[in-house]
Amino acid sequence: MRIIRALSVILFFFAAFNAGAAQQPKTVVAVQLQSPDFSVIEMKYRVFFNKTEIKKIPLIDYDFKAALTDELMNALSEDSRMRWRLPSEKETIDVFGVQKKKAPLPPLESDRVLLVGVEDFGALLADLASDKFYIRAKFKLIDRATGKKLWEKNVFEREDFDGKLKDMQAENQRGLKIGINKVLEKVTRKVVADMRRARI
Amino acid sequence: MQQAKLAAPSLAVGLILISFAIVFSLPRDPQTTGVLRLKTDTSDVQVWLDGEEVGRTPLTLRAVASGKHRLALMKDGYEDHQQEIEVLPSQANSIFVVMKPSTLKLPALPAEFKAIHQHRTGTCVGTLTVSAEALDYKAINDSDRFHIPIAGIKSVSRSWGPVAGLAPMGIRAPTDLMAFRIETSGRSYGFFAFKDTPDDPVKVASEKTRELYEVVFKLWSATLKKKQNG
Fold first, then answer.
1. What is the pLDDT of residues B187-229, one digit of tens each?
2. In the β-sheet with B52-56, what is the strand arrangement from edge to edge?
3. Considering the entire predicted model, what is its pTM?
4. With contacts defined as CB-CB under 8 Å, which chain B residues touch A61?
5. Closest CA to A114 of A171, A176, A30
6. Does ipTM come in above 0.85?
7. How far is the C-alpha of A183 from the C-alpha of A174, rounded, in Å?
8. Do A177 and B15 touch (CB under 8 A)?
9. Angstroms from A54 CA to nearest CA on chain B
10. Which of chain B's residues have a Cβ under 8 Å away from the Cβ of A63?
């Protein structure tokens, strides 16, 4: 009899575990960039005026959106409060439009949507300060049915570059990719940690 | 009554089996393993860890034994990347590699390669001649000779890992080396290309094997395209 009781307890725990998994809200993670190119913002200090030059550089062989999406999905998969997935090919989400409440969400098979709008990413160059890599993005978790905001975080993450980007001639693309990858990892760590702390 | 007597021991055995299954399905001790995350700028790069193919980038390997490992990354059109990495226990170890586009210049055809041909047991040294139509191998001592039409090749691949017994070309075995393999219907052939040189023989052999692989792969891909179009 005791053995049967023990077995029942084990089965009960298994059933409870499965029930918990079934209750996890399904969440779609939608990532969108304003521009796929790397921005180089150069700030030139002058005596009577400050001048800023913005250049857009395509990173050859590097898909920033795919890299960020993969990093996020990998980190989010450890947050078992929700089941995470990417939108299917048919589910096109206008992330910036939905974030600003100017566009509706398309029909989605999910309970929640994590909107990731990357406003800009690149490097800040300044004569009088160290060069920096940066990512500026807005993360917003909403309820799919009501559109209600559940959690939000604005990110402007920077990472100092050891040296001057202008000095890297031949290795330029390599340096930009390594630099932006560091910021990307930093952003993901911070955002996922912040989301874990939030009572969602 | 007899059945009731048997039920208790069967249940006990069942419970023990379940406990074993649960214990063994759990991840390895986190104190001795770490998470290894591998990323490259270009995606879909073949990843070899300690001579074994483990997947393609981006890749997350959980429960990798802590300590030093040999990492090799390979993708057509890019130079091979090799690195010794250290996996720290109970940590997420992230590695990001920027792949360098290949500047390899392919030799004019017909091209001759000094090659070691791998047998099921042992090896022989000879010359592999690659022409637009076929591969012809002839061992130095004439102990082996064969002709492989390019159109008859089913697959062309290469691997990276420790290889034993390569004394003829001055490589102390076992060592890490690139192997070139082709498969035809019913038989597969393994080769290492090399060059008599005072330079690092492992490095040169891998470069020559890669050159051989690139030449044959290009010819073989052309035959595939012809088949698809026609």
1. 888 888 887 766 666 677 778 888 899 899 889 888 876 666 6
2. B52-56, B46-49, B67-74, B81-87
3. 0.74
4. 41-42, 99, 101
5. A30
6. no
7. 15
8. no
9. 24
10. 43
